[in-house]
Amino acid sequence: MMGLLTSGDSHQAAKRIMFLEVPFYDDDLIKLIVRLAFNEFFIALLILCCYYPNQKRKAYVFTFIMMNVTVFFICFTLKKLELGLGMALGLFAVFGMLRYRTDQIRIKEMTYLFLVVGLAVINALSNKKTSYAELAFANGILVLIPAVIERFNNLGKMAQQAVAYDNLELIKPARRAELIADLRERTGLNVQRVQVKRINLCNGSVNLTLYHQASDGDGDGEDATGEEQA
After folding, report:
1. Residues 5-34: tens digit of each pLDDT
2. Are residues 169 and 149 in the same domain?
3. Quick check: 206 and 200 in contact, CB under 8 A?
């Protein structure tokens, strides 16, 4: 009579199934799934808690996730070839310095790109000598530090807005408080200070730069280059 196969026996049977001298299954599949889930958890924290709430750039979210997953699979696959530390550092340097020639990437986006590549390399190349507690600590630090920095950067952050203004009387230095009050009323922005850029006496207008308290929808402020009529 044929006996029942235990779970261990079924795993051994699966390992013995070969196709072109490659086993159908080995224990590294479980490691791959666990490490990938671990990696994606911390990437989600980095993007959802640090990057997107502060930068509001959806286009880079796709880039960061796919770059992280791609580097993770490359590193995990090549790790089985036992190429050593040199391979890890080489891949880390290549992907870390990667620039997209079709578009200019800001320094902050490049830093986040470096972070997502770093997380992928750490999670894919760690071995049995690295405990899950150590791995969680390393990942947590790489997520916590950007979160703290972004939090402090947002305190008192000022956004800029260029406007064309039509009341030349209020641009006099002695009436600066009236000018700010009028701009707050007409724009709905919490204007803190005003800089006079250009005065046009022919049509009675002046170009101003408003500095106001940044809200969630303002981004970094440095990208606000449009001009509004006030």
Report:
1. 455 555 555 556 666 666 666 777 888 898
2. no
3. yes
d(CA 88, CA 125): 8
Cα four-point dihedral sign 183, 188, 192, 195 = negative
Of the spans 35-44, 95-104, 189-198, which averages the highest pLDDT?
A: 35-44
Cα Dmax for the chain? 105
Last residue of a domain, one of 154, 176, 193: 154
Residue 102 sits at φ, ψ, to 5 deg, of -80, -10
Q: Are residues 180 and 136 in the same domain?
A: no
What gap in Å lies between CA 122 and CA 218, rounded to an integer? 34
Are the beta carbons of 214 and 221 closer than 8 angstroms? yes
Q: Rounded CA gap, 165 and 24, in Å?
A: 72
pLDDT digits (tens, 9 = 90+) for 109-159: 888 888 998 899 889 888 888 888 999 999 999 999 998 888 877 655 667
pTM for this entry: 0.59
- Is the separation of the CB atoms in 97 and 146 below 8 Å? no
* C-alpha pair distances (Å), 75 with each of 25, 34, 169, 208, 214: 19, 15, 66, 52, 40
